[in-house]
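Hey, resending since the last one bounced:
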Amino acid sequence: MSRYYYFAATLPALSVGAPAPMSSAEFLDRCKRNLSSSDYATVESAVLVSAPENRPAACSASALLKAYYAWERSVRNELVRLRARKLERSPEPWVRPTARDDTASRAAQAAFQAGSPLEAELLLERQRWDTIDSLKALHYFDIESIAAYRLELQIIERLARLREELGEERYRETYAAILGSAQTSPGVQE
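The structure tokens again:
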């Protein structure tokens, strides 16, 4: 397995809640300049959520990506089962073949019980991070650690988009409330 000691050592640390040190596009550009073409294809194929039929063959070169996608599919299957049970329907048309995973089941259950869709998404992103973190254990400077970095970078970018959407929604609510109170205040003409 190829090792990329210098390249991996130059990557800034990532953490949930911190801003992304670079965009995914910038990261892929750096990878293209520093990795072999087959390893670059593996890292490029590392996407958070993707249907198996849409995944490039390069994903199959990575044990980490295979394990991550199996976990992701297990989460999705469990969410299907929970939603189907709530709607009193059969989940079978939507369940995809994969082994059941206890951590995936717990993640799906927590997301399903969340108070809002945003809270559910935040919980799922945290679980994805934790899963990737555990899968990359003992992988240092190799293609698995670099693929994991790409997945974590995508989580940070997605969380930033979720925060932007929430912020924009709150801004609109506040702005509408201000306009509403201004129109009903005494001395304000319409």
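Helices lie at 5-10, 24-34, 37-44, 63-87, 102-112, 117-135, 143-184.

Sorry for the duplicate.
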